[in-house]
Amino acid sequence: MKTIIEPFKIKVVEPLELTTPEEREQALRDAHFNVFNLHAHDVLIDLLTDSGTGAMSSLQWAAMMQGDESYAGAESFYRFLHRLEDMTGFTHILPTHQGRASERILFELVGGPGKIVPNNNHFDTTRANIEHSGAEAIDLVIEEGKHAAVRHPFKGNMDVDKLVDLIDRVGPDRIPLCMVTVTNNSGGGQPVSLENLRAVRKVCDGYGIPLFLDACRFAENAYFIKLREAGQGDRSVRDIVRDMFELADGATISAKKDGLVNIGGVLLLRDDALAAQAGALLILTEGFVTYGGVAGRDLEAMAQGFEEVVHEDYLAYRIGSTQYLGERLLEIGYQIVEPPGGHAIYVDAGELCPHIPQELFPGQALVCALYREAGIRSVEIGSLMFGDAAEPPPMELVRLAIPRRVYTQSHIDYVVEAAAHVFEQRHALRGLRLTNDPPYLRHFTAQLEEVTVEAALPAR
Ligand SMILES: *Cc1c(COP(=O)(O)O)cnc(C)c1O
Q: What separation in Å is there between the alpha carbon of 254 and the centre of ligand 1?
């Protein structure tokens, strides 16, 4: 059967309100052409992020009613603990309120001036927490991972030779740990193979460097391993997940992704002394070690979510639906980051709109066009997001992230149809100019106006 079928039926519906083109035009202007400023109410299909935007199951909602809100030693904590022990093999398991809280605790302990932390690609909060500690964050993804049109089954892999070079150059004492992000979010949601994780592990062992996973999308990564890695096709995702975690000395997890919850996170550690220090920091800023800044009911939702996410019918639908969107956009004529990733499709807007120069934000022009056309909210990952960095970004991307279990295949078809209309109008899309440029993380609050290329760049 070719039809992608949602492996669930719907018990509760959340109505969507259709807007007219005139209403969307007004909303876009009121938002100063920055979709972070839109009221979510004015958005029809919200593809801004897959983080914390998923739908919970009836079993998760039922589990929440059993939330034990005792300050210490709650039953809900032990259910959460046993689920994660069973899934990962770790014994030091700390709940946090989200991924960046785990990162902040970890890098407060192992980071600091002079230290260097390699990764395939650091996610922005990971990089920010490393740099905030005074350490340096370095990206070592394989060469294939840097080119949109190149297909590779494990485009998120780390370049092992570059890792060895880095360690030899700076010395292992300056590298408190090596991280690998699965799947590689900043690199297009691309997976990392077990073979690559084993090779990285071997290098780390040779120098006595611990290996950590940024494991936000561990289940999607494991499913790609099952689909694509030689010898893995007959194994269960559960077993592959276990293999991935057993290769690591620790992991940070945002449960807002593959935890299938709206808020929550985890920090996993093997080292007893480090775990004791992390527990002390957790108490200082998050909460006691058996709740870590979330309610007992949230621990229940996570315990159940981490169980449901490794179900293979769910993963087949999840990965199948994202791939379907990506392949349809390629057929229309868009260049996307190939092959389609797990949680999102990344469109190359620079390639789509060569008439809009980088400084007039071609990505944001596409974001505005998708909203105007059909009420779809996406996000620019290009010069607007990274404009305060030293170098311009290599690509002007627009990300369409798919919330988990929220939209149906007909919603995806609607996105494809809207994207086809926008493709027809691509030559008429207009660039944008900043009217308000905040000093930090400007894409969240910046304000813009539309301009014609000639008016904005008279000197050309
Ligand atoms: C979302 C994410 C984080 C941060 O998690 P939050 O829950 O948003 O704090 C870290 N790393 C990766 C790869 C992520 O996708």
A: 5
Element (H, E) at 401: strand 397-401
The helix, strand and coil proportions of the chain, stated in percent and rounded to the nearest 5, come to: 45, 15, 40
Answer yes or no: are the C-beta atoms of 76 and 317 closer than 8 Å: no
Tokens encoding 47: 């593809």
Interhelix angle 99-110/272-285, rounded to 10 degrees, is 120
Two tokens, residue 412: 């995806």
Does the C-beta of 218 come closer than 6 Å to ligand 1?
Answer: no
Q: What tens digit of pLDDT does each residue of 50-104 get?
A: 999 999 999 999 999 999 999 999 999 999 999 999 999 999 999 999 999 999 9
d(CA 178, CA 203): 10
Question: Tell me, which fold does domain 58-308 have in CATH?
Answer: Aspartate Aminotransferase; domain 2 (3.40.640)
What does the domain layout of the chain look like in residue ranges? 21-50+311-456, 58-308
CA distance 390 to 397: 18
0.85 surpassed by pTM:
yes
The rounded distance, in Å, linking the Cα atoms of 368 and 375 is: 9
**What fold characterizes domain 21-50+311-456?**
Aspartate Aminotransferase, domain 1 (3.90.1150)
d(CA 76, CA 325): 38
Fold matches, 21-50+311-456 and 58-308? no
Cβ(126) – ligand 1 distance below 6 Å: yes
The full length of the chain comes to: 460
Q: Ligand 1: distance of its center to the CA of 265 in Å?
A: 9
The CA distance from 405 to 56, in Å, is: 8
CA of 98 to the centre of ligand 1 (A): 8
